[in-house]
Predict the structure.
Amino acid sequence: MTVTDQTALRFSIEVEVGVDRAFEVFTKDFDRIKPREHNLLGEAIAETVLEPTAGGRLYDRGVDGATCDWGRVLAFDPPHRLLMAWAVSPQWQLETDPDHTSEVEVTFTALGPGRTRVDLEHRHLDRHGEGWESLRSGLEADGGWPLYLDRYAQRITDG
């Protein structure tokens, strides 16, 4: 399900695992959730790293060792909440001004012992400045957050 407003996107899915496992897969397997072709690095990506702590980095490491920080962890509250800063501009380039970053909040709600609802909200898109609407369009398209959530759901299924 996708809900949009002017400056935010919201997506929800349900997965057939408990809340602890749902959170763990999203955060520890983020490297396998984010597609390699989503690349600001300029070289092939060896891994995407989500450092599991508030203040942690969100970055890609290239096959030759270069890194590209494209976000940071603002809150890390296992197993219920992950909040990240998104530092990618409407031109799909690295955004270095923290005042021009948006936020991605992912929450995990237990629906039972083996079922979890995962809600993803990407908000404050207007902070990116001119062209933010095109960023929103790209993120809500099939190759944006829906792709990430599909890949996440597949990771859950694959175990």
